[in-house]
Amino acid sequence: MLTKNGYKILLLSGCALYFQPTLAASGVKSGKSTPTHHAPRARETAHPAPKVVPAHKDEYISVRKQVVGANGVTNTTPGGGLMPVQSAAKSVSGVSRDYIAKQSPTANAVTLLAMSPGVVVAANDPLGLSDRMNVSIRGLNQTELGTTYEGMPAGDRLYYTPFATEWSDTENISNLEVSQGSPDIDAPVYNSVGGQIRASARQPSHKAGGYIDLSGGNKSLNRQFIRLDSGEIGHTGIRNYTSFSHTEVNNWRGSGNTKRYHVDSHFLKEWGHNSIAPFFSWNWMRTDVYTNPTLSQWNQYGISYNYAGKYSYGTSNYYKLRFNQRQNVIAAIPTQFELMPELTFKITPYIMYTRGFINSGANVNGQSMFVGDQSVGTVQLPYSVNNVATVENVDAYTQAAGGQNATLTWKHKFNTLQVGYWYDYFDHNENTSYTPVEPNGNVMNEYGGNPIKTSSGTVIGTYNGHLIQQTNALFINDTMKFLDDRLVLNAGFKEVMVSRHATSAMPGPTYAVNKNDAEPLPQLSASYRITPHDQVYFSASTAFKEPAALSAYVDIYSATTGKKTSSHSSNLKPEYSISEEIGYRHYGVVNFSAAAFNYNLTNRQISSIVYVNNSPQSFSVNGGGQTIRGVQAELSLPAWHHFSPYISGQYLHSEMGNNIQVGNDYLPTKGKAAILAPKFTGSIGLSYDDSHFFGNFTFNYVDSQYSTFMNDQSIPAFKTANLSAGYRFKKVGPAQHPQIQLNLMNIGDEHYLSGVNGIATNARATKGIFGTSIAAGTPTYYVGGDFAVAFSLSSDF
Question: Residue limits of the TonB-dependent receptor plug domain (predicted)?
Fold first, then answer.
């Protein structure tokens, strides 16, 4: 037996030859909860990989292998980094450094998963810099996906936007995993009906040094990244790296740009089987937003439908009035202690703070204004003509969260028992105000510091809400292994209790809304290792999601009529799912994984964007019952003459289970295809890497998608392709492994609608089942990015 490139080469009788992948050689964990030990920096001594066999997901594999590049590439993951070896008893896909490092450094964690089966990314810029996008898995959108970064909940607790640009710079991400079917039972999430996305950070190096990456490209792309590794600090065993990046790029269509600043800092102290790994990330990002056209606007104007580049009186769609800004701090201390040889305790305390703005423009008439449902009479508006003025609608919010997630694990012989407790406190404040726009288009204070007020000093706006949420979750999980660990049985139960208390400071009939839910979440799974290369599994799980958006709990009013433009939801039942999967994996000369799945959902909560007073607002729509069935598969080959191919695909059938209520009538939607659920999706990847020359080609196909419950409007199928190429040099002066890299995104320069921004019940006037005429709605869409170029120079030192 020989070992080469992470594969055992076994000579059989009759001189037959086949390849068996060593699971440890992938450099990623086979399970889910414990952070992996990442590959060391180049030139460090590699530790031999332990002999392992696929087992239950709680087992993980650690390996250190010679790194061929300064950015962590090892060339050991099947499919060029697109198919890490998995062994959990459920569908799991992911990407490793072998793939991440060859993509544009501007990409965020979510866009890097676009090649995985069932994952559809509706991006609105080609570089992956914008968080104003949508990702869906098996027809379930991002508000239904749990996201964790280094074991702490990531993203927005109320709107459920991942905000993946805040997690980490891609240079610091070691691997990404997506569980398409169900979340981990110990995951600190409460919206994971569609699965879970996990991101893990690289560990600090044992040696002092650093890494630098400089990038430029079209649209005036300008990015700098630097990371410093301390190595072991004295003889304390403590290691750290701290990095900083700055990115700036012009919008690919229309006027405006995006600016981002980011800091990551990770510490690690290990002794025996114990570890403590504090980390801190700070992110500041401002984006001049893109338009989200209707289908008729797209057909008429294409990519020319944009916000105005110049201001004149009354130009409420001036681009400088429409921006998103968000500043975020996250910190956590993942800690693990071995209390005794068979007993381990893990705890991750964490905090998060966010300050953000979602601004837009509007024209208001000051002759008759309201605060909530109360008239405040005439208000003198600065810079008005006939008392009509252009204003910036400032939607400001702050979020603060803190909590801990703890697990106690007892392993004895063939049995592993886990018990855990998660607590999370979340505080969200959000309010709107109007700020005068000067004749030259400038705004004195675009952060709401100089709002328009009544004569009595009351700030005029459309809503002012405050929500406090507390989450308590208890779980127990038991795993048993039989037949020399070939048969693994698992059963778990989790009870999640979510309490929400929302109040509105606007005058009106509803001051407070309270919501308390307790959801039982059982899980079952079984896996059997037929041979060292073949595994079958079955899983059954449950998940739920609380309604998204503040608008589900507070009323929104028109400042010019005093009428409600949106009422808080009277149907606040959480979405609940029961899902089953059966799957098969094989690793060898051909690496293959396939799964068939079935979901039954009740109270399907569908999040959408609706424009109120010319300002985008998020809403949740109760879509009732829904069934989802399908199959997914991925296939890859080990490197052959340095080439590594990969292919994945999914077939999806998703159907609505009942008629949707609109007013006092119902639309005949039962049996209609679900929205945002393309029937076919597929990806093809091809990677080349001989340790000096490297390249990567990816192709994605996404079928057409409905944007209305009545299936009377949809977007066409689209396809995109990306290409990267580069070269690694030997040592040049202080540069240890200098590298050049070219990334080309959307190489066909296809102009396409990438996804649905705002849904509608029906796009054509329709008679309800009781004969009522139900007016047409107007869906809006994301526009996929055009051709983009990013050229990078990087090296460690």
Answer: 85-184
